Amino acid sequence: MNRQMLFQPFTVKVPGTSANLGCGYDTLSLALQFSKEYNQDAVIPTDVDKNFLTTTLYSIIQEEANVKDLSTIIPSDKMVLLDIDNDIPVGRGMGSSAATIVTAIYIAKQLTNNSSTWTKDTIFQMAIKYEPSADNLSSAIFGGFNIVCSTDLGYTICKTTPLPDRSLLKGVVVIPHFQVLTMEARTAVPSSFSKSDVIFNLQRISLLTNLLSTFGDDSIPKLEQDRLNYQKVTTHSLMDKIHQPYRSKLVPGLADLLQMSTAIDGLFGICLSGSGPTVLLLAYDNYETIANMCQDNFSKHNIKSNHMILEFDNLGATITTPPLHN
Ligand SMILES: Nc1ncnc2c1ncn2[C@@H]1O[C@H](COP(=O)(O)OP(=O)(O)OP(=O)(O)O)[C@@H](O)[C@H]1O
Ligand SMILES: N[C@@H](CCO)C(=O)O
């Protein structure tokens, strides 16, 4: 064992997330297992004073762990090496900023010896101070399917339901080769809505919550007509009148895609992932055909894209420490 070692090496893993799920603007989200497949094209500063992960880490150590002088945990002649593996596409609507904040909190938790006091719920409430999108944060921390509810009680409620493991239901993400700034996408959403649009979304949030919370492969009918009827219900459940129609101007082709609800057998529903531009297609069959349909639509608007077929993540954020060798 290296007796000079300041900290035992540890690994923090945080899943990517897809927020809103159409109707559930700022309310619903789910966690997805990303793999190395994605060729990261974003330029992330490596300078510790400019990188979002390290600047957030400093803030958490100082503000949340109340360590004002960093040299009390890391002597000035020592350093901490961060080896970052970035599998979540950056700035594409799959929770890369939420994952960064959660990663920073887990690193701070380890460096400041807060392992027992910083529970997942503490971390969730803490993370909200650094990113207002509690939806992405909830799935990044808890995994599964999440409903968040802001309160005036000083905390945000989160209810997590695991998604079926190794099920036919998967998240197909189609990632266009451009970024949408979350701020711009939020500004596009109006501040008031008609009563009928609010009711439209309330009905679908309730329906989708029921469908996802109870989903099992045996939910999928076998007979053709029954499958079609089931698909009409599931595709309806993701529809939205609160944010997607207003964000369509930022994602060419999105408006057409949202009309293609029952075009292909196996499609559970289509929505914009987070603030976009990625499109999430929940599907239980014909994954490649469904992804190609979406990519062809983007091509018609001269937008290049690629796709990934992803399993859901039920673990959320994890931290592991390898056993020390003697
Ligand atoms: N691994 C990372 N290291 C440092 N900063 C990162 C990393 N990943 C993301 N970021 C920061 O997060 C920003 C992207 O946040 P933004 O909210 O625009 O997109 P997103 O989180 O991918 O999408 P959404 O919130 O819609 O799901 C990047 O510009 C960068 O500043
Ligand atoms: N609910 C958020 C997620 C993106 O951070 C939004 O749609 O703006």
UniProtKB/TrEMBL annotation:
Gene Ontology biological process terms in this record: threonine biosynthetic process
MF terms in GO: ATP binding; homoserine kinase activity
Leading EC class: transferase
GHMP kinase N-terminal domain segment(s): 80-144
Pathway of action: Amino-acid biosynthesis; L-threonine biosynthesis; L-threonine from L-aspartate: step 4/5
Alphabetic keyword roster: Amino-acid biosynthesis, ATP-binding, Kinase, Nucleotide-binding, Threonine biosynthesis, Transferase
InterPro entries tied to this protein: GHMP_kinase_C_dom (IPR013750), GHMP_kinase_C_sf (IPR036554), GHMP_kinase_N_dom (IPR006204), GHMP_knse_ATP-bd_CS (IPR006203), Homoserine_kinase (IPR000870), Ribosomal_Su5_D2-typ_SF (IPR020568), Ribsml_uS5_D2-typ_fold_subgr (IPR014721)
Catalyzed chemical reaction(s): L-homoserine + ATP = O-phospho-L-homoserine + ADP + H(+)
Protein name: Homoserine kinase
The GHMP kinase C-terminal domain, residue ranges: 239-293
The keyword Nuclease is annotated on this UniProt entry: no
Family the UniProt entry places it in: Belongs to the GHMP kinase family. Homoserine kinase subfamily.
Superkingdom in the source lineage: Eukaryota
UniProt EC number: 2.7.1.39
PANTHER family: HOMOSERINE KINASE (PTHR20861:SF1), HOMOSERINE/4-DIPHOSPHOCYTIDYL-2-C-METHYL-D-ERYTHRITOL KINASE (PTHR20861)
